[in-house]
Write a structure and sequence with these properties.
Blueprint lengths: L1 H47 L3 H6 L6 H66 L10 H16 L8 E5 L4 E4 L13 H8 L6 E7 L6 E10 L5 E10 H9 L8 E6 L5 E5 L14 H9 L2 E7 L6 E8 L5 E8 H4 L1 H26 L8 H13 L4 E6 L4 E5 L1 H7 L3 H4 L4 H4 L4 H13 L5 E6 L5 E13 L2 E10 L1 H21 L5 E6 L2 E5 L1 H6 L4 H4 L11 H15 L5 E8 L5 E10 L6 E8 L1 H15 L9 H18 L2 E10 L2 H7 L1 H16 L7 E6 L2 E6 L6 H19 L3 E7 L5 E6 L2 E10 L5 H17 L5 E3 L11
Parallel strand pairs: 26-27
Antiparallel strand pairs: 1-2, 1-5, 3-4, 4-5, 6-7, 6-10, 8-9, 9-10, 11-12, 11-15, 13-14, 14-15, 16-17, 16-20, 18-19, 19-20, 21-23, 21-26, 22-23, 24-25
């Protein structure tokens, strides 16, 4: 697609060059004809007053020598214009190639970075989630079915990977996402030896090697697995199939001699290259120009150099692949991005030479004799009649119209005879005073034309622009008036002026902040934008937009998301948090785009939505959270429970819902009042938070009832029930500790403290998937809680088959 875009730009440039050639050709022809006509026209009137002997001697006027000088001047000017246009189009083609190469390099780097990030995150999550005991060879048989299914579900996340595996501390394959994977040992692989010998190793991207099972050229991504004491248990391993990357490189369509390369940044070794065979080549190449440019000049750029592989000169766009030890290179051959320019330039030069040759032949065939008066008058008449502009011949003494061409008759709507019977005042809608005022205004403004309102035959009035030229016809002085209808142009000018005023009003608006940026630096802002962020316009002009972001990462993240969108000629819209000059943060709705395709200058608009965001947060807090304890309320708990059941169905892991009711709560309210009850509920919420994980949900249902949602326990029901029982016992123990409640303070600063003991009756319901509804699970937990109440309180009860056998519960 990028290659097609570049070709389209070149065709547009070449088309513009051809149009310019035609334009210049027509202008040169008109100039040359005008020179000849002027000389003939002048000689015509001179011949009328010369005697016969002078007429004979005047034949020397049009000799070839004079026209040869004119032709030479025209040819030199024409060739200079052609050369200038060729140079300008060459620079444009080169600039377009640089932009296209840089964009392709960015696209490729984004794809590779995403691919490597997914592979890195996948093996990291595998290492974090696998139980250490599962890495023991003697336990592999017990865990293999479960872990194999787990690996199959995760391998789909990596598009270029064919398998996910775990190897033990001896290099033997323990688990695999591939069914019937044959036994294999990788202890001799360098990446495994490094992971085993170096305890500080994290994720490793290996050198290129051939897979022993698949026989394909691969690059391994591995992360070590350690137990709690730091002992090496093995590694999680996936592979990146270089054939997949090779196919991605092929799809970039860079032209006949384009090239795409992925190399290691630490050594310069080749990983994969297109075009070319996929093979193992881990030879270090530290002196490559692009690698040196990245190490010395920055993570990305464009360089023109000759490839050491095939000797082709290319324009290379290069970028480091995220934070990984690789860099990618996209190269467009000079022969490709200049091919159409060279072809079209050849056509342009051939056309120019043919034009000059035709002009030379035409001039060489000119007859040097005098042009007869009759022929001169006829040609002059043809020039007037065939002109698209309305032309009038006027007697300046009385303003009578003596002659009019066909275009004038068509414009005014009268026949030639009718036109020649009128005066200028008959068609002019202005009175003499207005005509005099227009003449004065034209002289003041140093204009060589006048603007009048002329009446047409149908009664319509049109605004016209009149250019007048005095001529001599025999002994008479006449005026040639060229009339242009500018009614639409004047209307458009008024609309443009109105639009300009509207635009100025918008730009100066205090509602929307607007700024223009180039290379992420401010080049212009309106007053509203500067005031919105606490700056003056002068303080922002020339500054980097980084000053508005709370961190370097936030600045970089916005650029990574926004600029690829606007470079696709689309409008980017989002909500963003910016930092004002005084350090405070605010929320803004931002939208922006490029001012024109190929232009690096962009324009952005901002609307302050901080108050709206604050109101949304307040509404969300009131709608979904308990105002006293700031815990989720019943509505939010129902939503979280539904989400947990969906996740349970996907992962096949059990969840648990606990319904808590405080024992001995009412006496506290009766003795010390509702303030004491509120303080107790706040303290209970605080203690509950210390008993659960961050991923779990606490909620208050009202009064002294609380709910605890435990999600993503295990796939085994008995083990999950045991885990839920442990959490319930921890909650029971934590809530049974005495509460010291500071109720009031007297005027001397002495606090009155009330001690209260409170326990909880806990009902637990286990669930997995969506075998029932969320309301049914709540009902189960509620029933179990009431069973705990009926059995003496301060106890734990499980609903149904999930009840543990321990009689203490």
């Amino acid at each position: 697609m990028s290659s097609a875009v570049l070709a389209y730009i070149r065709r547009q440039q070449t088309g513009a060059s051809f149009i310019l050639l035609v334009f210049m050709t027509r202008r040169v022809c008109l100039v040359s004809k005008f020179i000849v006509l002027f000389q003939r026209f002048s000689s015509k009137f001179k011949l009328m007053t010369r005697p016969n002997d002078q007429l004979k001697s005047s034949k020397n006027w049009h000799r070839w020598g004079k026209y040869r000088l004119i032709f030479l001047g025209i040819a030199v000017l024409f060739l200079a214009l052609i050369a200038w246009q060729l140079y300008a189009s060459l620079r444009t083609a080169q600039s377009s190639a640089i932009t296209n190469t840089r964009n392709l390099a960015l696209l490729l780097e984004s794809r590779l970075n995403t691919e490597f990030q997914v592979a890195e995150r996948t093996v990291a999550s595998l290492v974090e989630e696998i139980p250490p005991e599962a890495m023991r060879s003697e336990m592999a048989g017990q865990y293999r079915p479960q872990i194999s299914r787990w690996l199959k579900s995760r391998v789909q996340n990596i598009s270029s990977a064919s398998a996910l595996r775990f190897v033990d501390a001896n290099g033997n394959w323990l688990y695999s996402s591939v069914d019937n994977d044959p036994p294999m040992n990788v202890a001799d692989r360098p990446y495994f030896q490094q992971l085993k010998s170096d305890s500080a190793s994290t994720t490793i991207f290996s050198d290129v090697s051939v897979g022993r099972v698949s026989g394909r050229v691969l690059m391994w991504v591995a992360k070590p697995v350690h137990d709690r004491e730091g002992s090496f248990l093995g590694a999680a391993v996936t592979s990146i199939d270089l054939t997949s990357l090779h196919e991605q490189f092929h799809n970039l369509e860079l032209g006949k001699d384009g090239a795409v390369t992925l190399r290691r940044l630490d050594s310069g070794a080749l990983v994969v290259r297109y075009p070319g065979a996929i093979e193992v080549d881990n030879k270090p190449a530290p002196d490559l120009p692009i690698r040196q440019a990245i190490l010395k000049g920055g993570p990305h750029g464009v360089i023109k150099t000759t490839s050491p592989v095939d000797g082709v000169q290319r324009l290379y766009g290069y970028r480091r692949v995220g934070t990984f030890p690789f860099y990618s290179v996209v190269g467009i051959a000079e022969n490709d991005y200049l091919a159409e320019w060279r072809r079209d330039s050849s056509f342009l030069l051939i056309g120019a030479l043919l034009f000059l040759a035709t002009l030379a032949v035409a001039e060489s065939r000119r007859n040097g004799s005098e042009i007869k008066l009759r022929d001169s008058e006829q040609r002059f008449r043809n020039l007037i009649d065939r002109n698209n502009a309305a032309i009038l011949q006027i007697d300046p003494a009385g303003g009578h119209i003596l002659d009019a061409n066909a275009s004038a008759c068509d414009f005014y709507g009268w026949s030639h005879a009718q036109m020649c019977g009128k005066t200028l005042q008959d068609i002019n809608a202005l009175n003499p005073e207005q005509v005099a005022a227009e003449c004065t205004t034209a002289a003041t403004e140093n204009r060589n034309y006048l603007i009048f309102a002329h009446r047409l035959a149908n009664g319509e009035t049109r605004t016209v622009e009149i250019h007048s030229t005095p001529i001599s016809m025999g002994n008479r002085s006449l005026l040639i008036l060229i009339v242009y209808d500018i009614t639409e142009r004047m209307r458009d000018a008024k609309q443009l002026a109105s639009l300009t005023l509207d635009q100025k009003a918008i730009l100066d608006s205090h509602i929307v902040g607007i700024f223009k940026a180039r290379d992420r630096k401010f080049v212009w802002t309106n007053a509203a934008f500067a005031e919105m962020l606490g700056y003056t316009k002068e303080e922002l002009i020339g500054q980097s937009t980084r000053v508005l972001y709370p961190s370097d990462q936030a600045h970089a993240d916005f650029g990574d998301v926004a600029y690829p969108t606007i470079h696709e000629s689309e409008i980017f819209r989002s909500e963003i948090q910016l930092q004002r000059k005084n350090g405070s943060l605010g929320w803004y709705e931002i939208s922006g785009g490029l001012l024109s395709p190929g232009n690096e200058e962009s324009i952005w608009g901002l609307v302050d939505i901080t108050k709206r965001k604050q109101m949304e947060d307040q509404v969300r807090q009131l709608a979904f959270y308990d105002t006293l304890t700031e815990l989720p309320n019943r509505r939010l708990l129902n939503d979280r429970l539904s989400q947990a059941m969906v996740a349970s169905k996907r992962s096949d892991h059990y969840g648990a819902l606990m319904f808590l009711d405080l024992d001995n709560f009412k006496p506290l309210n009766d003795v010390h009042g509702h303030l004491a009850g509120d303080l107790l509920l706040i303290e209970v919420a605080s203690r509950l938070k210390s008993c659960v994980r961050e991923m779990d949900t606490l909620a208050r249902f009202g009064g002294d009832e609380f709910v605890v949602l435990l999600s993503e326990l295990t796939r085994d029901r008995v083990e999950s029930t045991t885990q839920a029982e442990i959490v319930a016992e921890k909650i029971q123990e934590t809530l049974s500790s005495p509460y010291l409640l500071q109720l009031t303070r007297d005027g001397m600063g002495v606090s009155r403290t009330a001690e209260h003991r409170c326990t909880a009756s806990i009902g637990v319901a286990m669930f997995v998937g969506q075998e029932t509804t969320a309301q049914e699970v709540l009902k189960w937990a509620d029933l179990a809680m009431y069973e705990a109440k009926e059995n003496g309180r301060n106890s734990i009860r499980f609903y149904g088959a999930g009840r543990p056998k321990n009689p203490a519960c």
